Amino acid sequence: MITLYIYTTGSVKEVELPKNLDSHSNIYTHKLTKALSRYSYYLLTEKLKECGYDPTLITFDKKGKGVHPHISFSISHSKNYIVLAIRKASVGVDVEEIIMDEKLNLASKILTDEEYDIFDRKLDKNGYLTEKWTQKEAYGKFLGIGLTNSVLMTTQDGFSFNVKGAVVSVYPKENVLMYYNEREIS
After folding, report:
1. Overall pTM surpassing 0.85 (yes/no)
2. What gap in Å lies between CA 52 and CA 41, rounded to an integer?
3. Helix segments in 12-90, DSSP class H
4. From CA 132, how far away is CA 119, in angstroms rounded?
5. End-to-end CA distance of the chain
6. What's CA 92's distance to the chain center, in Å?
7. Could you give the angle at the alpha carbon of 99 between the alpha carbons of 98 and 101, nearest 5°?
8. Could you give the count of Cα atoms lying within 13 Å of 103 in the half-sphere of its Cβ?
9. Comparing 158 with 174, which gets the higher pLDDT?
10. Which residues, including other chains, have CB under 8 Å from residue 48's CB and lie 6 or more apart?
11. N or C end of the chain: smaller count of CB under 10 Å?
């Protein structure tokens, strides 16, 4: 079971973080990205505490992936959303705003030949490309290797859905318990 928390970014505020997370989230130089990262980790610490896990045990591997000895988590944020995925075993999550027309040229770089054939026939090219991108990003996070060429050249079908102008994808595809701004949704 994956527990997925989706938050709108309208409530982002400056927060105090444990030292292990403070230094990691300060690597960003862009003010908004830094604020979103810090607030994402704040939300994660609150959820881990609620579940009885010590957030000060989070460390970071060579690629920057957060690791906890007792639970797996994945974080993603975009301009409008912060998404946390928590699971006993490895998990990956990604959220992206729907890709705009001027970025559709990315399709040839991130889709397999089979996916590109489907993309070429789609009426909603933007939604399809965003879904495939987030599925691959979530899969790369699940593996702990990020968005490598080998990940891009695979077809992954995680659990994906639209949220008011964005796509959220989670890997692996299994039962998901979802919360949107702290309210459980089905």
Report:
1. yes
2. 16
3. 19-25, 31-50
4. 10
5. 14
6. 6
7. 130
8. 12
9. 174
10. 54, 55, 68, 71, 73, 86
11. C
Tell me phi and psi for residue 89, to 5 degrees.
Answer: -105, 180
Task: Report DSSP letters for 119-153, one per residue.
Answer: HHH-S-HHHHHHHHHHHHHHHHHHHTS-S-HHHHT
Q: What three-state secondary structure class fits 12?
A: coil
* Interatomic CA distance for residues 51 and 43, integer angstroms: 13
Q: Is the pLDDT of residue 186 over 80?
A: no
Q: Give the tens place of pLDDT for each residue, 78-126.
A: 999 999 999 999 999 999 999 998 899 999 999 999 999 999 999 999 9
Location of structure tokens 């959820």 = 47
Residues in a beta bridge with 95 = 168
Radius of gyration of the chain (CA): 16
**Tokens 């989706």 -> residue:** 6
Tell me the C-alpha to C-alpha distance, in Å, between residue 164 and each of 17, 25, 32.
Answer: 30, 27, 20
Long-range CB pairs of 28-36, under 8 A, 24+ apart, other chains included: 32/79, 36/9, 36/12, 36/77, 36/82
Residue 119's contacts (CB-CB under 8 Å, 6 or more residues apart) are 107, 111, 125, 128, 129, 132
What pLDDT shows up at residue 13? 85
For residue 131, report the phi and psi dihedrals to the nearest 5 degrees: -60, -45
